[in-house]
Design a protein that fits this description.
Blueprint lengths: L3 E3 L2 E2 L4 E6 L7 E7 L5 E8 L2 E9 L5 H12 L5 E5 L2 E18 L4 E9 L4 E3 L3 E4 L8 E5 L5 E7 L8 E5 L6 E6 L2 E6 L6 E13 L2 H7 L1 E2 L20 E4 L2 E4 L8 E9 L12 E10 L7 E8 L5 E9 L5 E9 L5 E10 L19 E7 L2 E6 L2 E6 L11 E9 L7 E19 L10 E4 L4 E4 L2 E2 L16 E10 L8 E6 L2 E2 L1
Antiparallel strand pairs: 1-2, 1-7, 3-6, 4-5, 6-9, 7-8, 8-9, 8-10, 10-37, 11-36, 12-13, 13-35, 14-32, 14-36, 15-16, 15-35, 17-31, 18-21, 19-20, 21-30, 22-27, 22-31, 23-24, 23-30, 24-25, 25-26, 27-28, 28-29, 32-33, 33-34
Length: 507
């Protein structure tokens, strides 16, 4: 039995259609240009709306008045509804009433007719066709991942008109650019010149040692160095041991053979991403230096040295005998590659304070010190103020390769009870490294292109600003294995997942 459904209602529940004129195709409208000779040129062709006239007879036995009202409520509306016919169940028209509904009755029997207008001029498939990686090779087409990670899609368009698909691309690796290449056009989005990496300079944390494991792994004994660099005093024999104890690096087994006896630990600074030692740096370290009685004394040094193990700078805390005061000494490199005295500051070895009103700079809750090298300048920090000098006859490119911790005890004297290096942190201030650029389209992003609506979205957000001027939204011709190529940035390492949806269109 022939049935006609309009919206949610079956018109054939009320009438028997006598004639339905669906025609072969909708009319074309041509824009013509006269030739100077014979004939004309077709400049443009446009498909006009389609009209479907229908005549009917009300089913015998039904109340013609009830049917009249029912048909009016179903058909006489401004809303576009789906129109389907039982002899072509897989397609539908989007239609609305045009003109009047003719209806003639004698109280018992009725006939009539009406015309439905199809604004698009064609029918569409009821089901949405879907082609993706999971059903590739089936009735809708095939998706091919090429060796260069581009994707070729062969679409089976079984309609009689071109389709305007919605294409969803889900990258599996970063890309900054996508191009969709079809027979009828090319659409480009993103930036074809976007790179995946660049070289940058920035600060980089080299180390941040706070625990026993940190120090024991990285600060190791240096048996090749037998005497510390001299300052205003002779170098100390490195005949003793220092190691982690309780809260940091402290004295261990100390010899008594010389006036001063010391131990040393060495840290080799890791090279940067380009294989170089650190040129510009910021060292921050936490030192504890508090005596328990006035008879205690001791020396604490941190030396910063270049690739040839020549000193660049030295931070020293010194207390040489009985008394209250200790001194913080800054030592700098000279033209003869020997340490020269730069600055001196006095503080209380009992409280760690520089004066009675100051903060305890070397007490348990404080102790933060810093040295910074930038170019040929080295700055020591004292009470948050920089004291800077220029390295004489030393190139600005001189690099930091080694850090030495030296702790010395004076013979026959007690060691300053709380002498400890509790943390050490080093920043590279001018690290050159390769930077991964977060590209425009990330893995698992959903990039959608609606060819019909000329709309681009990324993760459901409008992205038509990604459109590259000069490219165009396009259609896929009717026929089997219609090719669509998807290409992207040349640094992309794996093909994206692809899903294409469309409605077939039939004249």
């Amino acid at each position: 039995m022939f049935k006609v459904k309009y919206g949610d209602d079956y018109l054939t529940d009320y009438v028997r259609f006598i004639k339905v004129n669906r025609g072969v195709a909708s009319e074309s409208e041509l824009l013509l240009e006269e030739n100077s000779g014979d004939g004309t040129n077709v400049l443009k062709s446009r498909r006009k709306v389609k009209e479907i006239p229908m005549t009917f007879h009300v089913i015998d036995g039904l109340d013609v008045n009830v049917v009249r009202e029912k048909l009016g409520s179903i058909i006489s509306t401004n809303v576009i509804k789906q129109l389907t016919f039982s002899d072509t169940p897989n397609i539908y028209y989007e239609a609305t009433l045009t003109g009047a509904i003719e209806y003639t009755d004698d109280g018992f029997f009725a006939d009539g007719g009406f015309t439905l207008l199809v604004p698009k001029g064609y029918a569409e498939s009821v089901d949405t066709k879907v082609l993706n990686n999971d059903n590739s090779g089936g009735e809708n087409g095939t998706i091919i991942n090429n060796a260069d990670h581009s994707v070729s899609v062969l679409i089976n368009n079984n309609g009689t008109l071109p389709i305007y698909p919605t294409i969803k691309v889900t990258p599996t690796s970063e890309t900054g650019y996508l191009a969709f290449v079809g027979q009828n056009g090319i659409l480009e989005i993103g930036n074809p010149d976007e790179a995946d990496t660049t070289t940058a300079k920035s600060q980089k944390l080299v180390c941040d040692f706070k625990t026993k494991s940190d120090f024991e792994t990285n600060f190791v004994p240096d048996t090749s160095w037998t005497t510390s660099w001299p300052t205003n005093l002779d170098g100390m024999p490195l005949n003793s041991t220092i190691a982690w104890k309780d809260d940091g690096i402290r004295i261990g087994a100390m010899a008594q053979s010389s006036l001063w006896n010391a131990g040393v630990l060495r840290y080799e600074v890791p090279k940067d991403d380009l294989g170089n030692y650190v040129k510009d740096w910021h060292a921050n370290f936490n030192t504890l230096y508090i005596q328990k009685n006035l008879e205690q004394c001791g020396r604490f040094q941190i030396h910063f040295a270049d690739e040839n193990k020549q000193p660049l700078a030295c931070f020293e805390i010194y207390k040489g005998g009985v008394g209250e005061n200790a001194s913080l000494n800054f030592w700098r490199i000279g033209g003869d590659k020997k340490l020269k005295h730069f600055k001196n500051h006095t503080f209380s070895a009992t409280t760690g304070k520089p004066d009675k009103n100051g903060s305890p700079l070397f007490a348990a809750s404080h102790g933060g010190q810093a040295i910074v090298k930038q170019g040929n300048k080295i700055s020591f920090y004292w009470r948050a103020m920089a004291e800077t000098y220029l390295m004489d006859d030393v190139p600005a490119s001189t690099k930091l390769a080694y850090v030495y911790v030296v702790i010395g005890k004076r013979r026959y004297y007690q060691m300053v009870a709380d002498t400890s290096l509790r943390s050490f942190k080093l920043m590279n201030l001018n690290n050159e490294y390769t930077v991964d650029i977060p590209n425009k389209y990330q893995p698992e992003d959903e990039v959608k292109v609606d060819m019909e609506k000329s709309k681009i979205t990324v993760n459901d957000l409008g992205a038509n600003s990604d459109y590259i001027t000069g490219s165009e939204f396009f259609s896929i011709p009717p026929g089997a294995s219609q090719r669509l190529d998807i290409v992207y940035s040349n640094f992309t390492t794996s093909p994206p997942k692809v899903e294409i949806k469309w409605k077939e269109r039939i004249l």
